[in-house]
Every structure is written in C-alpha cells, then in structure tokens.
Amino acid sequence: MAKELIRLRDCTMVFDDDVVLNKINLSIKDNEFLTLLGPSGCGKTTTLRIIGGFVKPTSGDVFFNGVRINDVPPHKRTVNTVFQKYALFPHLDVYENIAFGLRINRHEGRRLSKDEIHSRVMEMLEIVSLKGFEHRDVTSLSGGQQQRVAIARALVNRPKVLLLDEPLGALDLRLRKDMQIELKRIQEATGITFVYVTHDQEEALSMSDTVVVMDGGVIQQIGTPEDIYNEPVNAFVADFIGESNIVDGIMIEDGVVEIFGKKFACLDAGFAPNEPVDVVIRPEDVDIVDIKDGMLTGTVTNVTFKGVHYDVIVDFKGFKWLIQTTDYCPVNSRIGIKIDPDGIHVMHKSQYSGMFGDYSSYSAEYEEISDAELEPEETVSEDKLYEA
Ligand code: ATP
C-alpha cells in the first residue's frame, strides 16, 4: 500500500459567508492519480488551490508527508500546477519553455549545470512524446502539443505532486480522448502524484486510480472508478456517474427489494427491514424479454439508434426508464424486462432522493403517450424472482 502524501483534515472554506467547502477530509497517496469530480461550483478548484497553497482553508489542516503545511507558501511546496489556459511563453521555443523553470530556480540548493538542464529537458520531451520538437515555435503547435509542453514544463522541476485543473477543457473531443491516454501514461512513467479536477465523469473514470465525487462543497463518495460506478452511495453519485434509472423501493429483507410493488432479488444487505430505499438500475443491466417472461412490463415510448446499441425509453406506470439494448423494439410495443440480482443496486435515502432517474425529458422527439392509466402489472411469481 503506497504511503500517504497529502491529507486534508476537516477543511472548510468560507467566502463572503458562503460555505463553499464543508469539512473536507481527504487522503492522497504517493503515486496516485486522484480526480476531484463534480458539477460547476461544487468546490473542486478550491480544494486544489488549498493543496497548492494558493488559498488557506478558513478552518482545518493540510498535511504533506505528515507535516502541517497550512502556512507554507506555494513556491515552498513541492507541488506544480497545470491550468486549462496553459500560458506558454510565445517568444520561447519548446525547449526554452520547458527549460525556463530550471534556469531561474535553484534545485536542491544549487543552480543546475547546462548539461543537467539539457538532459532533464530531453527526458521530458521523451516522456511527453515531443522529441524532435525542441526548436519548434510554441505558437506553431496544435492545442494538444501545447498542452504537453505545459505538462513537461510543470514536471521538469520534479514536483512530488502535479495539480491539474481541467487541463483538457480547451481541447476538442478527439484530442481530449488522446490526451487522457497520454496523461495516464505520463503519470505512470513519472510516478508523480496527480490531483486532477474535472466535471467530465468519463474522463474521471478512464484515468483515475481514485475518484472523489463532490457536490455542494461536500465529498459525496471516494472510491475506485469501479466502486463509484457499481456501488454509488446515493442518488446524486448514481446520476452524475453514467446513466441510471433511480426508482423508489422498499428493502424487504437482505437480498430482496420491492420496486413498483414487486419483489426483486438483489445482492444488497444490511438495511432495516422494510426500509424505504433508492434503487439504481443501469440501462445496460436490463434485459428485454417477452411480456409473459417479464418481471415488469412496460411500453416503449422512444427508440434512438446509437451505433452499437439502441437507447430505448420504456414507460413503467408513468416512470420512464432508459434501457440500452442491441434488440430493436418498436415504439408503442409492450415489452417485459428482467434484471439479474447484480444489476440492482440499493442505496439509503438521502437529500437527493426523488431528484434524478426519470427519463421523461430524455429526448426532444419524445412524444407523450397517455398511458398513465396502464392496467395493473401482473404479479411476478417467486420462481421468476430468483431465476434471473
Ligand atoms: P468550476 O468547475 O466551475 O470551476 P468548482 O467545482 O471548481 O467549479 P470552485 O471554483 O471551487 O468550484 O468554487 C466553489 C464556489 O466558491 C463557487 O460558488 C465560487 O463562486 C466560490 N468561490 C471560489 N473562489 C472564490 C473567491 N475567491 N471569492 C468568492 N467566492 C469564491
């Protein structure tokens, strides 16, 4: 297990009487790629700025290698930052942009020799895949290449931690995806701890060892990308990460949850008997079957071809689910669905209950069909409950 490098303890930040961070507790390990993920204004950048030393928390402590660093200024922290606007020096070429920090700063108490600077710059060019570009004018580079120069410039001083604030935000989608792979590779090649800020859940899932989901200045969940996707702690996390149907349920007992008045087998346990819960069902975990075999039956209200699969909106008693399937089902058809126990995830009720998970407004082409008066669903038999 890698050792802890940074710890935030009960960090609160108040701006103009607004609590923008509320008792944040966070542990960041050596060599970790950790991502702060959340909607605009949730406090990601403020958390990053506290780590960088650009702002001091109103209360709470910041530790680096176990030493409290609240009062240590940014330039005395072994931390560097890459911003979305990377502001390269336009009058310097690639080589000089990267070498700049090495020339002006002392390193371990001394100036680096010309040879040392050269070997460090060449090493960085190799790491960011820009070998051969050293004498190119930075203004002649593509956005992705410029961003790589900015990363090389931030890494050349060998910081212990690199803070990255939406560094790919200005790039187009294709380039962003390429750079995600590049960044992960660079992080692994250098072994430097990356703390990355984004509001893009796909970016967070694809690069991170650890994802920290934030909302309203509060950490909602910390976990691996798989944990966050498969075991969201509440409706906010379930909705923010990937697509999800979130419905009301009652946890009858360990392994049995009731949805729309019917019992479903699940893998969850540890809830109070008959506890009202939120149930998340991912669109790809629902199988479309014949009506007679369905655990629930509903009406298809919208179908969108997505290339690999169809996005199908199905109305269950007025609540719209999104189902992703490779089977085509025409609009207005009645279908049955089956969900395996591991496709159901049960969560405690929270302040976010009832806010997410209905796909009524999913598509502009969606046409309301007046089926609120659907006939009552057939009762599912016990053997159907467990055969899934
Ligand atoms: P975004 O993705 O939009 O950058 P964020 O999650 O990074 O959002 P922060 O930049 O941390 O959010 O801001 C959190 C809240 O704190 C916002 O409401 C913001 O307006 C407020 N805030 C941040 N810095 C200051 C400041 N210096 N003075 C006053 N309010 C601030």
Helices and strands, with pairings:
Elements: E1 4-15, E2 18-29, E3 33-37, H1 44-52, E4 59-64, E5 67-68, E6 79-83, H2 94-104, H3 114-127, H4 143-155, E7 161-165, H5 173-190, E8 193-198, H6 201-207, E9 210-215, E10 218-223, H7 225-230, H8 235-240, E11 245-253, E12 256-259, E13 262-265, E14 275-281, E15 286-289, E16 296-305, E17 310-316, E18 319-325, E19 334-339, E20 344-348, H9 382-387
Parallel strand pairs: 3-8, 3-9, 6-7, 7-8
Antiparallel strand pairs: 1-2, 1-4, 4-5, 9-10, 11-12, 11-14, 12-13, 14-20, 15-19, 16-17, 16-19, 17-18
Summarize the structure.
This protein is an alpha+beta fold.
Notable features of this structure?
binds adenosine-5'-triphosphate; OB fold (Dihydrolipoamide Acetyltransferase, E2P); five-stranded antiparallel β-sheet; 23% helix; 388 residues; alpha+beta
Describe the biggest sheet?
Answer: 6 strands, mixed
Shape: elongated
CATH topology of the largest domain: Rossmann fold
- Estimated helix fraction: 10-25%
Q: How many β-strand runs?
A: 20
How many structural domains? 2
Bound molecules: adenosine-5'-triphosphate
Provide the gyration radius in Å.
25 Å
Task: Supply the CATH architecture of the largest domain.
Answer: 3-Layer(aba) Sandwich
Order of helices and strands: EEEHEEEHHHEHEHEEHHEEEEEEEEEEH
Structural class: alpha+beta
Overall mean pLDDT: 89
CATH class wording of the largest domain: Alpha Beta
> Separation of termini?
38 Å
Descriptive notes:
The protein has 388 residues and is an alpha+beta fold. The chain folds into 2 domains: 4-230, Rossmann fold; 246-387, Nucleic acid-binding proteins (OB fold (Dihydrolipoamide Acetyltransferase, E2P), Beta Barrel), CATH 2.40.50. Helix content is 23%, strand content 33%. The chain has helices spanning 44-52, 94-104, 114-127, 143-155, 173-190, 201-207, 225-230, 235-240, 382-387, and strands at 4-15, 18-29, 33-37, 59-64, 67-68, 79-83, 161-165, 193-198, 210-215, 218-223, 245-253, 256-259, 262-265, 275-281, 286-289, 296-305, 310-316, 319-325, 334-339, 344-348. α2 (94-104) packs parallel to α4 (143-155) and α3 packs across α4. It is elongated and about 80 Å long. The structure holds adenosine-5'-triphosphate.
